[in-house]
Amino acid sequence: MSSFVIEGGHKLSGEITPQGAKNEALEVICAVLLTPEKVTIHNVPDILDVNNLIQLLRDMRVKVEHPAVGTYTFQADDIDLEYLQTEEFLRKSASLRGSVMVVGPLVARFGKAMIPKPGGDKIGRRRLDTHFVGIQKLGATFTYDPDRRVYEVEAKHLKGTYMLLDEASVTGTANILMAAVLAEGTTTIYNAACEPYLQQLSAMLNRMGARISGVGSNLLTVEGVRELHGTEHTILPDMIEVGSFIGMAAMTGSDILIKNTGYDKLGIIPDSFRRLGITVEQKGDDIHIPTHDSYEIDTFIDGSIMTIADAPWPGLTPDLLSVFLVVATQAVGSVLIHQKMFESRLFFVDKLIDMGAQIILCDPHRATVIGLGNRFKLRAATLVSPDIRAGIALLIAAMSAEGTSTIHNIDQIDRGYQDIDKRLNQIGARITRL
């Protein structure tokens, strides 16, 4: 188990560029299974989850080339369907939650798929019902083997239909969309997720020959086609990294320029940080965070305590709630952080309390942060990263704390953030990897 040793109290200075978006990468890489032609994808992040998915495709006999940093070509013209039956495939895909999105493309193109009950972050119950019910409505049948913990999916013929999703699941919508593009007739998906990741996937599929309309809304209409073709696609900057860097700069009193942020696709993220009193300056596609001696949390118009809550897009992404919570500990004022979508993502709060933060954990979904400003610095501590997003929040806390902290289980952080220690050290951080 690897660890970070962080010497806190150092200001950052300079420029940093976010990696490609992890969530988008997992979707568009699965989409290469929809065509036998070559697909080129740029700005692919070099992180564990993405690399594991690429290796899984290699094992399925997808031809993968890596001609340049961040660029991959994929050609799925000779898929080994027998490999899906092997224990090796089941073991590898079980450890990678994003692998569930191979189901839609495989069923659409080959009429069958096999997927184990997925793993991933321990951040609460993450149902797959939306994926399966949607693909079932297109004509697929699902059989669950409880002994092997494996779902077998078959479909001789997918046919378009109307469906109202029970939740606006991002990966569920992506999976259904990738199945629907090769289904016969028209598919209407209502209550679809509309995150930028889905918009990017839809744009890529349309360039491949799909006919998807309503992109960017929660009502998608898909006119099925017989086949898809190759294309070239560039992944957006990772909005979670952009938000992490904004919070990190404010909390450490740093002056940094975040380059190539995909600002127009960030939604309410910049304004949400402004509600914490943080100055976020847009400069073209870059974001400048000036040095903050202090920052003060807004209140609502009637003077009541500010609430920051996650919601499906265009609401605030749940992946940044951990960052907002930790950044609020060094603000002036109080805020209620309401994590509505996952019930275990606030369970790292006790670590922040040990560091001296004033936080009341109301229940698994809500925490009240009483910001005492930078007059009361956090104390260094020995910490364990429970998941990717809490891990980056703990790293931010450690960078702002007085003294030297240690974070164990940083493999979790590596799953979502590419060489984060090296990149931060280049702009002034003091992080050692053990």
TrEMBL record:
Primary localization class, coarse: cytoplasm
Catalytic activity, as annotated: phosphoenolpyruvate + UDP-N-acetyl-alpha-D-glucosamine = UDP-N-acetyl-3-O-(1-carboxyvinyl)-alpha-D-glucosamine + phosphate
Pathway: Cell wall biogenesis; peptidoglycan biosynthesis
Positions with a binding annotation for UDP-N-acetyl-alpha-D-glucosamine: 97, 319, 341
Cytoplasm as UniProt keyword: yes
Record's keyword terms, sorted: Cell cycle, Cell division, Cell shape, Cell wall biogenesis/degradation, Cytoplasm, Peptidoglycan synthesis, Transferase
One Pfam family here: EPSP_synthase
EC number: 2.5.1.7
Domain of life of the native organism: Bacteria
Domain Enolpyruvate transferase, first and last residues per copy: 7-422
Active site: 121 (proton donor)
UniProt similarity note: Belongs to the EPSP synthase family. MurA subfamily.
NCBIfam families: murA, PRK09369.1
Record protein name field: UDP-N-acetylglucosamine 1-carboxyvinyltransferase
